[in-house]
Design goal:
Elements: H1 2-22, E1 30-46, E2 51-54, E3 60-70, E4 75-91, E5 97-117, E6 120-142, E7 145-150, E8 164-176, E9 180-189, E10 203-217
Length: 218
């Protein structure tokens, strides 16, 4: 957990410094920071049985620094770098429980439509992301006994999850003329997170992340 907090703190400091050094630029490109709450879970698909299932959601966080580059009156491109808290909560038998807490660094590139309305604008966007799992823990509770173990990322049979995740983001919200904005998003993971060498290769595991954010554009 210490690694997670250290990386998050570094991200906040770097993003704040970057925004302060670029706001004096007279170009049309703007920069922003946003953060909030994630409700992540896993989706499992059994290709052989043609069935799917989802875990319970857990609670995590998100923090993103981004640029907004206009390409027309109503459209812009938003590249960024993001810290995303992911994972899931499993319920097995009775009080037995397992929970994954994963920290991922993501690079999203979204195409955003901006629709002026009232004292601001509505925005709606989508685009791909590349994610890299950098830290994580798995907490297991059996009766009154709770244990925590670091997750191992890779593609061998001794690893828990793959390191790299590709997917698609969807986002929507409202931004005031002051720059204050409120939004929601959904991350649709397309990569099978289960290591290739695991025995159940017919089962696919994907990230699903619902998020809510508050931010400011400079």
């Amino acid at each position: 957990m210490k690694k997670i907090f250290l990386v998050a703190a570094a991200m906040v400091f770097a993003g704040s410094t970057f925004a302060q050094t670029t706001t004096s630029n007279s170009s049309r490109t703007t920069f922003g920071l946003k953060g909030g709450v994630n409700l992540p879970k896993y989706k499992y698909v059994n290709d052989d049985a043609n069935t799917s299932d989802e875990t319970k959601t857990t609670t995590n966080f998100n923090l993103t620094g981004y640029a907004d580059v206009p390409i027309s009156t109503y459209f812009s491109v938003q590249p960024g770098i993001s810290l995303q808290g992911k994972g899931a909560k499993y319920f097995e038998n009775g009080n037995n429980e397992q929970e994954d807490n994963v920290l991922a660094v993501e690079i999203p590139v979204n195409l955003v439509a901006n629709l002026p309305a009232g004292p601001g604008k509505f925005y709606l966007g989508a685009g791909p992301y590349a994610g890299f799992n950098v830290a994580g823990q798995r907490k297991t509770t059996i009766g009154n006994l709770t244990t925590e173990n670091d997750l191992i990322f890779g593609d061998s049979n001794s690893d828990n999850l793959k390191t790299v995740d590709f997917g698609v983001n969807f986002l929507a919200g409202y931004q005031l003329t002051s720059g204050l904005n409120f939004g929601a998003g959904y991350g649709l993971g397309l990569t099978n997170l289960r290591p290739t060498s695991t025995s159940n290769t017919n089962i696919e595991q994907n990230n699903r992340v619902l998020s809510f954010t508050v931010g400011y554009a400079f």
